[in-house]
Amino acid sequence: LPPPPKDAPVGRIDDGTFSAYAGSQRFDQLPVSQKTKDGLKDAKFTKMTEIQRASLPHSLCGRDILGAAKTGSGKTLAFIIPVLEKLYRARWGPEDGVGSIIISPTRELAAQLFDVLKSVGKHHNFSAGLLIGGRKDIDTEKEHVNDLNILVCTPGRLLQHMDETPNFDCSQLQVLVLDEADRILDVGFKKALNAIVSQLPKHRQTFLFSATQTKSVQDLARLSLKDPEYLSVHEES
Ligand code: ADP
Ligand code: MG
């Protein structure tokens, strides 16, 4: 682990080992694996954005996150990094199956974040799949879905697998991400999300990111998060 930055503020007592990383400005100051650091470096990510600075010291020590920050503020890396680290620290391997599910409101957004996952995670050995419906044949997907470590999905397609795929197994799930939660709810996926969350194991880490904090986002947060760290970032400094 890198030494904590000299000007790091002292964290709360229950922050544990990683409290000292609260003042980090750059990704290479964080307690993340060399594989993740190399992926970030290759993609030319150096300095953290505000939502990343605020959330990563907490998410990397195992906490649930309820994060609100406007579009374009860098929320994707704020959850992709701790997803990779959680599985890496658990020594997750091909035979361990689905370890993380990332839910995104639309096919386009899911495909974009899948690209970021592939890029930043390229030095890791995890398998990942994009389950978004459309042109892709679900029958082929059904045969492979249990072999994937990280699923990036739209709510409809994930629910379809939960309902129809024989032996679909997410009983070992470590991390759930609800990305752009306000938009997921806007496009009418509230029921689907409730159904999905109710079928997932309760012992897990959950990140909920959203551009806005609406009443329905708070309802979803109550249903899906445990003692979350509330982080709201309004303006980039
Ligand atoms: P959001 O989900 O909050 O709308 P994204 O995660 O899609 O934002 O990021 C928006 C843009 O900012 C993307 O082009 C991304 O590559 C870029 N970006 C994210 N984090 C950083 C960073 N730490 N340094 C430089 N660019 C970044
Ligand atoms: Mg986003």
How would you characterize this protein structure?
It comes from Rhododendron simsii. Residues 25-53 form the DEAD-box RNA helicase Q domain. A motif (Q motif) lies at residues 25-53. With 237 residues, this protein is of the alpha/beta class. The protein is 38% helix and 14% strand. The chain has helices at residues 34-42, 50-59, 75-89, 107-120, 138-144, 155-164, 181-186, 190-199, 215-224; strands at residues 65-69, 100-103, 128-131, 150-153, 175-178, 205-210, 229-233. The protein has a seven-stranded parallel sheet, sandwiched between helices. Helix 5 (138-144) links the parallel strand 3 and strand 4 (150-153). The longest helix is centred in the middle third of the chain and has 15 residues, at 75-89. The structure holds adenosine-5'-diphosphate and magnesium ion (MG). Residues 75-76, 179-180 line the site of magnesium ion (MG). Magnesium ion binds at residues 75-76, 179-180.
